[in-house]
């Protein structure tokens, strides 16, 4: 796990430094503080790590890759800010800290999320990222991954499931999570290849399996995890009577499925040889984490 932990630490440091620079120039209104709270309040930086590692595999200058890495972290933060709102998951704790609408108010949370979303596209469109074609490709694919074909679509399916007459099937949950969780993870893994204008297929295959394994691990944590370590309320889905990978497959079945997906993810990286070991370790980390 050493390759991943070292790469993750480098990614966290680089992303933190870049966000410090970005937020220093934004302003001092409550919405700016709320944005910073959402982005800088810890987190694994897995998506940013995937961008930077994919870029490294394709010999892309880290100075070009850091902006898309921050972009996906900003967009992920926006999704969490809105997901925590009373009209959605109604959570008051995120990573052990008050959620944005609790620390400020709902209006500030909505606006902070909106601003983080637009910031993501601003960062991807920055001339420092690369040619116009590269920047346009990143923006277009990020819009698809985050919008009505991706994350927002998955969230809409999730909300609809709360009032559905019958629980979702395994196929339906897989489709839901491919959008809600998987789409942004897939964009993150592909971004390095897109920066190099290279074939995204190996990283796309890797990320599709990784994203589903990540969500299955989340469902397992929701059932068996420690709230103090997770930094959020657990067992919400069970309380709401929602179907999950655990409720459909059982704990052992869910763990087996997650492990199989990690194997698939690792196998997809064979074109990169030993150079992709940190990404293989990231896949193993995803199903062994405690938060």
From TrEMBL:
Domain of life: Bacteria
Keyword Lipid biosynthesis carried by entry: no
Cofactor: Mg(2+)
GO term, biological process aspect, one: carotenoid biosynthetic process
GO MF, one example: geranylgeranyl diphosphate synthase activity
Reaction(s) the record says it catalyses: isopentenyl diphosphate + (2E,6E)-farnesyl diphosphate = (2E,6E,10E)-geranylgeranyl diphosphate + diphosphate
Pfam families assigned to the protein according to its UniProt record, in alphabetical order: polyprenyl_synt
Top enzyme category: transferase
Primary role: Catalyzes the condensation of farnesyl diphosphate (FPP) and isopentenyl diphosphate (IPP) to yield geranylgeranyl diphosphate (GGPP) needed for biosynthesis of carotenoids and diterpenes.
Gene3D superfamilies attached to this UniProt entry: Farnesyl Diphosphate Synthase (1.10.600.10)
Lineage of the species this protein comes from: Bacteria, Pseudomonadati, Pseudomonadota, Alphaproteobacteria, Rhodobacterales
InterPro entries for this protein: Isoprenoid_synthase_dom_sf (IPR008949), Polyprenyl_synt (IPR000092), Polyprenyl_synt_CS (IPR033749), Prenyl_diphosphate_synthase (IPR053378)
Keyword Magnesium applies: yes
E.C. number: 2.5.1.29
Protein name: Geranylgeranyl diphosphate synthase
GO cellular component: cytoplasm
Record key words, sorted: Carotenoid biosynthesis, Chlorophyll biosynthesis, Isoprene biosynthesis, Magnesium, Metal-binding, Photosynthesis, Transferase
Family the UniProt entry places it in: Belongs to the FPP/GGPP synthase family.
Pathway where this protein functions: Isoprenoid biosynthesis; geranylgeranyl diphosphate biosynthesis; geranylgeranyl diphosphate from farnesyl diphosphate and isopentenyl diphosphate: step 1/1
């Amino acid at each position: 796990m050493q390759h991943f932990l070292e790469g993750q630490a480098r990614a966290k440091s680089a992303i933190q430094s870049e966000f410090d620079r970005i937020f220093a120039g934004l302003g001092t209104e409550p919405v700016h503080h709320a944005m910073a709270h959402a982005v800088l309040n810890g987190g694994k930086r897995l998506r940013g790590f995937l961008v930077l590692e994919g870029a490294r595999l394709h010999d892309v200058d880290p100075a070009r890759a850091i902006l898309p890495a921050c972009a996906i972290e900003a967009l992920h933060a926006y999704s969490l800010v809105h997901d925590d709102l009373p009209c959605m998951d109604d959570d008051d704790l995120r990573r052990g800290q008050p959620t944005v609408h609790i620390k400020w108010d709902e209006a500030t949370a909505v606006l902070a999320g909106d601003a983080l979303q637009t910031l993501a596209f601003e960062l991807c469109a920055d001339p420092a990222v690369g040619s116009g074609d590269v920047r346009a490709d990143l923006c277009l694919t990020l819009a698809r991954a985050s919008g009505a074909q991706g994350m927002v679509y998955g969230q809409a399916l999730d909300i609809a499931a709360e009032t559905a007459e019958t629980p979702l099937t395994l196929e339906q949950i897989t489709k839901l999570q491919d959008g809600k969780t998987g789409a942004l993870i897939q964009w993150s893994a592909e971004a390095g290849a897109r920066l190099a204008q290279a074939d995204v297929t190996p990283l796309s295959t890797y990320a599709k399996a990784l994203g589903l394994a990540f969500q299955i691990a989340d469902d397992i944590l929701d059932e068996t995890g420690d709230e103090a370590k997770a930094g959020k309320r657990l067992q919400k889905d069970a309380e709401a009577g929602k179907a999950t990978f655990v409720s459909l497959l059982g704990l052992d079945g869910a763990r087996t499925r997650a492990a199989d997906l990690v194997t698939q993810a690792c196998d997809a990286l064979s074109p990169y040889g030993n150079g992709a070991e940190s990404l293989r370790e990231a896949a193993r980390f995803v199903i062994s984490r405690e938060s």
